[in-house]
Amino acid sequence: MVNPYEQLMLVANEASTPLARKIAKSLGVPFSEMIRKQFADGECYHAFPDDVSDKNLIIFGATHNDQAHQETLDLIQGGRFWNAASVNVVVPFLGYSTMERAKPFSQEIPKGITRTRQIFRARPNYVAFVDLHSEAVLHAHAGEIRTKHIWTDNLVVKKIKKMKLKDYVLVSPDYGFSKRVARLASLLKCPHTAADKDRYDTDKTIVSQVSSVVSGHPVIICDDMIRTGGSIIQTANRCRDAGATDVYVLATHLVMAGNARKRFADNGIKRVIGSDTYPGVKSDGLLDIYSVAPLLAKWLKSHLLN
Prior knowledge:
This protein is of the alpha/beta class. The chain folds into two domains: 153 residues, Rossmann fold; 123 residues, Rossmann fold (3-Layer(aba) Sandwich). The chain is built from eight helices and 15 strands. Helix 1 packs across helix 8 and helix 4 packs across helix 5. The longest helix has 16 residues. It is globular.
């Protein structure tokens, strides 16, 4: 009987290499470091460090910028070129994931769909995503690729319990995310509510009010990602207006674009809790980072390695 671990090769794009090393360690298998060079004209050279033919290749690749997205495509197509037995992709953070549909008559490109379609058209066998902003992107492959949406609920619940807060309330910054927050609240056996939010421009929102259920309680504002932090900060202010005491923020993907860190610090946010899906984030005085490596290792064992 073939040992599935002997037929396994784990690689990653450059950005997701630190996370992939943690996952390999959790699995107890070696991590294969890609060979990378850059030519004088800026073109990039990639080579697998070992023969991938007849191997089950697992590629970890956040696609948070154009370079990381293209490198992930190159790794998928390289695995196909060198006859890997299977090519399996784990996307910890999907770039452009908030652009999954175009407004009528806008002529805008819904890059959440078009970029995800590029990944599918590179012909992997399996693609898994972590805490997607919208599951619409799962359907961009026309039924040809196996997909999986991996939720971090259990990790989030464990992290919140470790905070040892008393009588806290979970808050969704909008009704779109309220189902996820309700699910977390059910697991934590705590109350929850949602803010009224309206988007009026690409990166501009208005949060009008939060229920008085937060009065006299610490709150944890939960979201799938933090980009500029504008709507989160507005939600925090509306929570204080409604009588909340301390305000914490939790999101899976910490993009923290522009001056988001300073804005959080200036607006009295106690802590920002998030995962290591977005490349480069580390714990410090403001950020409290947990790893998704144990979750992804467990998922790989149960779905791809048995």
